[in-house]
């Protein structure tokens, strides 16, 4: 699942910037969304054919914005730019370190915006077909009701046939329920994807820190061994000087060696503390790995649920198509019956007029 997610969401461009959001109360002041510069990346989702801007700070997503053709990135100063996200009902601001970085981000925003517009135009026909299918979706358990003959009345040549109102109301309510279930599934999947992306970003950072820590630990072990060897030599020298019982310059050398020993012992203590801190970080990394596995498991369950919903929608479409075909056939038969009744009524009318004339004679 991890590899599938990486193939689905591919990074296009990344830059580091300070992220801000507009104050929702004043709509004028900027609120910092990150304490320091963070990575802001353009991503392309091949399955959904959409482009997104994502930025993660710590363990939460600061920016998760889907790019549309109506968005515009505005450069308000030499190193600052902004754009509005109507879906999130906010305005994002980015502060870059150099003017060149701002220019590169602005140009890439224009390219991605144009690509999003072209992708939307290409998929417009497909979306119209999907919306049409959803608009006529009906559940399987309404098959018997939809196959029942319609209610009608015949009073003469001008009489018409009409559909049962109860079946239409039930069909409409069931269609709205299926739409709601599909939308809830899509929202949950998006939330899980954002959570998974955050965990993956944290996981990559922790893995890099762990590798670096392991490398540093090996180097520190070598340094500790060298320090210990040097300490032993210095202790031997001090013991030799004490054995000879020298004075004057030897006393000064002894004091210097003692200070060196104290400094080395303090350094060894500091290195031990750093090794202890790195071991604690390693345990935190394992906890993050477990959280990532749980998020992947929830995402798999959500995908299975979406597949089940799609299967139910397909079954409902097939049942509705069969019901509509049966209704059309019934309507044609009823129409023929109406025409026959019209002819019979006309003949009876002629017969009645003939009888009236005979009675008058």
Gist of the model:
The protein is α+β, with helices and mostly antiparallel strands and 361 residues long.
Itemize the secondary structure elements and their pairings:
Elements: H1 2-8, E1 9-22, E2 30-32, E3 38-45, E4 50-57, E5 60-66, E6 74-75, E7 80-85, E8 90-95, H2 99-122, H3 124-135, H4 143-146, H5 165-244, H6 249-360
Note down, in words, how this protein is organized.
- With 361 residues, the chain is an alpha+beta fold.
- The protein has six helices and eight strands.
- The protein has helices spanning 2-8, 99-122, 124-135, 143-146, 165-244, 249-360, and strands spanning 9-22, 30-32, 38-45, 50-57, 60-66, 74-75, 80-85, 90-95.
- Strands 1, 2, 3, 4, 5, 6, 7 and 8 form an eight-stranded antiparallel β-sheet that branches.
- Helix 5 (165-244) runs antiparallel to helix 6 (249-360).
- The chain starts with a helix and ends with a helix.
- The model is unreliable at 1-7 and 137-165 (pLDDT under 50).
- It is found in: Cytoplasm; Postsynaptic density.
- This is WH1 domain-containing protein.
- Its main location: cytoplasm.
- Keywords: Coiled coil, Cytoplasm, Synapse.
- GO terms for molecular function: G protein-coupled glutamate receptor binding.
